[in-house]
Amino acid sequence: MSLQNKPQMVEAVLFFNERGICKEMHYPEFEALLDNVVQMHDFADQQVRCAFVLINPRLLVRSVVLFYLDFDERGEADKGWNIPLRHLAERAGRGPDLGAGPIRLACRSQCPVSWHQMHLWDPNLSSSGNDLALIRDAVKRNNLGILVEEEMPQPVELDRLQMVSEDRWYAPASASQEEIEKRAAELEEEHRQKTAQLIQQERLRIATLTQQHEEELAKFRLIAEQQLAALKQQAQGLLQQLQQQEELNASLKAQLAAQADAFATSREEVSQQQRELEKLGKNQIDLLRAQFDSELSAKIAAAVVEYQEQVALRDVDLAYRKEQETQLQEEIARLREQVEQARGQGDGQILEQLSKLGVVFVVYHPGAGHLTIALQDVARYQENPMAYVAAKCFVSEPQYCQWLAHYQMPSCEALLPSGERCGMPIDRVDTPSRFISGDSNCCARHKASSKLRTVS
Question: Has the keyword Coiled coil been applied to this entry (predicted)?
Fold first, then answer.
C-alpha cells in the first residue's frame, strides 16, 4: 500500500429523517453544501438533524457532534450557519463506548460552548431507536468508501526466536501473592472504569430525557395557558352577555310593570266614566260631547299657536345665524389679509413684535418643568432643545437623555447573560442631576454586582 493511500481519520456528516439515517457525505462535500455549490431539494424548507462524525481507519467512531441545519425553499443551506464542528468535537465530553472506547459527544445537554447549545439536539438512547447505534452501524457499512486498515499479524524473524529452559515450560502450580494482588487491582481498576463509563452514559441519558421532558412540559404548559386564556375570554364574554341579558330583562320587567299599571289606571278611569255616563241621561251625554269638542278645539288651537311661535323663533334663530355667518366670513377675510401681511415680514420681526406685545415663550420638559425662553435664546432652543434643557438642569446632554429614558420607563437596564434587558421595575429618580448611570437605572441585584466589579 502506498503512502498516499494510507488509511487515516475521516470526517463525515450524516443526515437523519424520521426513518433514520438517510444520507451520508464526506466533510468536503458538506462544505460545498454550505457554500451553496449544491442543493438538497429533498430537504427544502426543513430543519434537518445532522451528525458530524470522526471515524478512525478501523471504521470505529471517535467523536460525534449532533446539530441542526436549516434549508430554504430552494434546498439551499442556511447562509448564516457557523457552528465550529471540529472545535466542538475536540472539546466535547465523554460519551458511550461505540467500539473504540468512550467517544467524545457534543449535544444539547452536553455542549462545551454554551451559546451553541440551542443549535444542537440530544440523541435517542432507548433500545428501540438508539441514534448513536444507528451512526455506529452506518459507519460499519462503509457506504462512504473509507480506506480500512487491515490488521495483519506481523511474522517474527527466525533469529529473534528464543527457547526458554525446560523448567519454565509449564506454569507454576500457584501464583504468588503479589501477582494475585496485582491482578485483583487490575480487575478492580477495569471494573471502576466500566462503572464510571456506565454512570456517564446514564447521566447523559438522564440529561437527555430531562431536556425532552422539559420541552414537552413547556409545550403542554403553553397549550394549557392558551386554552385557559381562551376559556377565560369565553367565560368573560358569556358573563357580559348574561349581565346584558339580566339588565335587558330587568328593563323589560320595569316597562311591563309600568304599562300594566297604566293600563289598569286607564281601565279604571274608563270603567268609572262608563258608570257615570250610564247614570247620566242622553242630554248630559250630548252636553259632555259638546264640552269635549270645545275643549279639543281649544287644545288644537293652542297647539297651533304654540307651533307657530316655535316656527317664528326658528326663523329668528336662522336670521341671527345668517348674520353671525356673515360676520365670521368678514372676520376670516380680515384675518387672511393679516396673515398675508404677516407672511411678508420675517420670523424674527414677528417674534420681536410678539415679545414687545408681552408674549412669553414657555415650554415644558420633564425634569426642568416650565421654562421661559428669552427672545435671544429661541434660535438656540430650536437648534437643539435637549442640549438647552440639559444646560438648564445643570447636566450634560447624554446624561439628560439617559435620565429621560429612565424617567419615562423606570426599569433595570442591565443586560442578562442571554443578552436581554433585566426590566425589573425600580424607583424613579425625579431630578436629572441626581441620576447616576449604572446605579440609578439598575435594580438592587445588578447595582450590587456592578459595585462588586468596581471594588474588585
Answer: yes
Cell numbers at 212, concatenated: 425532552
Whole-angstrom distance, CA of residue 40 vs CA of residue 377: 67
DSSP H or E run through 169: none
Instruction: Name the H helices within 21-96.
Output: 27-34, 85-91
Tell me which residue of 92, 124, 94 sits closest to 106, measured CA to CA: 92
- The strand ranges marked E within 9-46 are 10-17, 20-26
Which has more confidence, 149 or 201? 149
Eight-state DSSP code of residue 77: B
Residue type, 426: I
Residue carrying C-alpha cell 438592587: 444
pTM for the model:
0.39
Q: How confident is the model at residue 70 (pLDDT cuts 50, 70, 90)?
A: very high
- Give every strand in the sheet of 20-26, ordered side by side: 20-26, 10-17, 47-55, 61-70, 102-106, 93-97
N- to C-terminal Cα separation, the chain = 63
- From the list 1, 27, 3, the residue with the least C-alpha distance to 13 is 27
* Enclosing H/E stretch for 167: none
